[in-house]
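Input record (Table S2, row 293):
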Amino acid sequence: MKDQLRSIEAIIAPPPPHMVGDGFRVHSFFPGGRLIDKKRMSPFFLMDYGAKVEFTPSKEPRGVGVHPHRGFETVTIAYHGRIAHHDSAGNSGVIGEGDVQWMTAASGLLHKEYHEETFSKTGGLFQMVQLWVNLPAEYKMTAPKYQEITTGMMGRYSLPANGGTVEVIAGEYNGIKGPASTFTPMHVYNAKMKKGSRAGFNFPSHYNTGLLVIEGQATVNGEKAPADHFVLLKNDGEGINIEASEDAIILILSGEPIDEPIAAYGPFLMNTWKEVEEAIQDVNAGKFGVLED
Ligand code: MN
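Output record (manganese (II) ion complex):
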């Protein structure tokens, strides 16, 4: 199957948006809909896409209040606007435009996410992605940690003929490595392509693979993928050819599936329902720490 192009399984229009708290207007591409199988994009369990939206100025930062997480990682990518976050492990920070926050919730923490204060006061264009990356059973109860990945830290591969740049967040592209440390093998890139440029990608055929068109539009293995659409690729080959029909930004995800049972409930992503019950009991018993609203 080497050198064989992957077929397109689906090009998915953004599902109707919903609000997460009052700050995040997201289209949930998976799990659900065309990707009803909770393991179809494993190790990526969930993708919430905040397509471009203008927020009016607000004195009170909009966002989502205190909530727990256990059993996975949240990866937040800011394309426009800035996001502030705090957690019960004492970590806090600001995700600036182009930056990524890779939070390993693992054994559990309390978390809140808001528009950053200055951005909130001025308002403006907001666009982001949050991924939930599953953890294998052996790592679900490890200690929480953070990776703050600024644009400047990302690996950068320059496409030929000034065609743009592939920013490598995790994994590797043409020998350029990304800074994120991951628990299972995966590749996460932002391909920032100039109109008319081409780029080729190869991932092992068993790696689940999809692309989100953040900006512009592109042709993926011969099929047109408009802005805000998710391209799901079949596991029947390795190759992906992208041609940017306009200046484009494409989020590329590919990873080795985690072949374990899933028990997902709200902000908990475990292997069994007993573990989900334990997570709820642990939150109620205060074992996830304390975080002021
Ligand atoms: Mn969170």
